Q: What sequence folds into this?
């Protein structure tokens, strides 16, 4: 007789595939975004207003998510309209919950532009990695998670590795000294950039975990949740534009300094927001942080080849620490026992246990 293979849970396979594809895409997107933001803010010529770029990224994200929701509803205009009304208008309490991350994300994204404008690439990247620790802290406080001792150790190793990599880049002989004004770029105020990065780290940790909690705690699709998020972010973004840059907007125009590269940056940033939305549905925020940290290594390697930086022993050792921390974080002896079987498992049970 012919032995038939055991039935496979295609839902579980697809969920795990989507999780790792999302993390890989997020890694690459973050690597490219970090390099692009720094270049856009320090290149010669007229500098665009970062507050308008943050707003336009939210607008692009809203349009994209509306299209995806329309597709989810079978491309039926009436079902699409009813779904929007039911989720956003008829459920005001749920919509108000999304106000918190909406405001936080707008402030965080503006702080990141401030930081990228005033810090050299190495300091910016190192400091922003503190978001992994703030994310872990909020995961414990808000989601009541318990991290294993090995996972706390992995977080420490990760930060040590990133610091070593970035200090190697800073100390290298090919360092371009980006702390000074570049071309027509803005004056560099390192303390302002540092505080902006620290603020962004704190807000990133809080908003990511809060959004994960409301996303997993309700039967609303990830795309509809992002429609809510962007709809509420746009008013906050408009307010930020006119509070910070009203004079320059009225004087030079909303799209002053925009060219194809800035529009590419806007789309890239919007795409990153959507990838994060998929990642928090199928993974957790700390794992997302590791993917982002790996992107920092890719960014440094790209910088070495593009800007002729020297690859040092310190850089190599730091990169090895980061890779080791990823494996260390993923190791959990209890996973084999707690692993769900069968197609009836809930999506939540397929998430990495922390």
A:
């Amino acid at each position: 007789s012919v032995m038939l293979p055991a039935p496979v849970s295609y839902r579980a396979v697809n969920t795990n595939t989507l999780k790792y594809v999302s993390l890989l895409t997020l890694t690459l997107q973050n690597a490219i975004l970090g390099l692009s933001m720094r270049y856009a803010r320090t290149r010669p010529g007229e500098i665009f207003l970062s507050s308008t770029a943050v707003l336009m990224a939210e607008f692009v994200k809203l349009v994209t998510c509306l299209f995806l929701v329309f597709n989810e509803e079978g491309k039926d205009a009436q079902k699409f309209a009813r779904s929007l009304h039911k989720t956003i208008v008829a459920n005001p309490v749920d919509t108000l919950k999304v106000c918190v991350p909406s405001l936080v994300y707008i402030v965080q994204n503006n702080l990141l532009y401030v930081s990228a404008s005033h810090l050299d690439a190495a300091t910016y990247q190192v400091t922003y990695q503190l978001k992994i620790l703030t994310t872990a802290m909020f995961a414990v406080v808000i989601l009541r998670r318990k991290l294993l001792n090995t996972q706390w150790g992995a977080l420490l190793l990760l930060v040590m590795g990133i610091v070593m990599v970035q200090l190697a880049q800073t100390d290298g002989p090919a360092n371009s000294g980006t702390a000074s004004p570049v071309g027509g770029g803005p004056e560099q105020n390192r303390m302002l950039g540092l505080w902006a990065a620290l603020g962004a780290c704190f807000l990133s940790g809080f908003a990511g975990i809060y959004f994960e909690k409301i996303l997993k705690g309700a039967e609303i699709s990830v795309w509809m949740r992002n429609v809510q998020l962007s709809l509420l972010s746009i008013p906050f973004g408009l307010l930020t534009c006119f509070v910070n840059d009203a004079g320059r907007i009225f004087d030079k125009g909303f799209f002053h300094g925009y060219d194809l590269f800035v529009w590419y940056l806007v789309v890239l940033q919007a795409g990153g927001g959507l990838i994060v939305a998929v990642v928090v549905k199928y993974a957790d925020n700390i794992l997302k942080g590791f993917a982002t940290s790996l992107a920092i290594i890719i960014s440094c390697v790209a910088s070495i080849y593009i800007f002729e930086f020297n690859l040092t022993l310190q850089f190599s050792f730091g990169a090895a620490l980061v890779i080791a921390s990823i494996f260390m974080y993923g190791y959990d002896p209890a996973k084999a026992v707690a692993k769900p079987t069968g197609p009836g498992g809930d999506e939540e049970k397929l998430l990495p246990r922390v």
Q: What stands out?
A: The radius of gyration is 21 Å.
